[in-house]
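Let's study my pick:
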Amino acid sequence: MARYVFVTWDGGGNRMPTIAIARALLQRGHDVRVLGHDSQAAAYRAAGLRFTAYASAPGFVLDPRPAGMLRLFTDRGLADDTLSQLAAGPADVVVVDCMLFAVLDVLDRMEQRFAVLEHTMHGFLTPGFRALGAMVWPRGLRVGRPRTHAVPIVVASVPGLAAPFPPQPALSASPGAVVYAGAMSRARADAAPTEPTVVVSLSTFRFAGLAETWRRVLDAVDGLDARVVATLGPAMSPREVAAPRGVEVHQWMPHDELLPRASLLVGHGGHGTTLAALAHGVPVLALPLDATSDQPRMGRAVARAGVGVTMSRRAEPTEIRRAIGAALGDRAMRDRARRLGEAVRRLDGPARAASVLELSASASR
């Protein structure tokens, strides 16, 4: 049995990968603990995981503005809490969210064996980290070095959005190894939908423009000759949306119940939601909400691969409706998404991530 501590933050898109991998290790008989914000406690405990909240960040509420995110990622209090957690109970491997620079830095300095968990496509992060490195250097943090010395870097994503994928090397926990684990959502291929079905799922965070984007999308699907299912998430209340007649509105509904029967996902380009749709073989229309995140890059990647389209969240409802209609009628796009879904499902993300983390723990003994 190996001992793992996952160190995370309340970021929405990083929740599913962390829970999926931690549960996979737990089911293999390992000792697994999670350290995160108190706002995450219910979700992690409901997943059967031992959870401890940061002592230094009670009553956490995410500030999604760039300055707020930078304060979070460089918060030395989270690093101190991590050291306290390890003093109370050592770990063979600490699995750290890729954005927690202060935690990565302190573990690297103390030569504690750790792995980095990335929750978007690896190629999106590399140039961004170079820019962030210059921003955090005056704070005494080293962004590049902890990533280089991680053993390994576990990417909860795929090596591209076109199938077949390039051949993947054998699993490795050597310093700096980058391991694409795959999608973390449960996915399956169902028969073709009995009727055209559009799933609308935007961000779980209330980015600027979220409510207006919901209005535009719902106006676009008004009277559409298709079943339309909208899942609002915690950022929106049903009272805030004027859903047209015939649109099914849910506060929350599991994607693995909706996506197997979907024809198209309309989303914000978030990595988790987008990859979940593609894992089911469902094309995507991305309307990025936050220019500083991976959402615009994810949208462009989807369009380049021909498994969806992207457009401005400020597009008029008539433009969005036209794009939805074109995607529903594009058989070639559906075929490319179906082939990509088959390739994603073959990776078996949580099991692959758990296996490489077991290699990392073995090497630490």
About this structure: The chain has a mean pLDDT of 90.
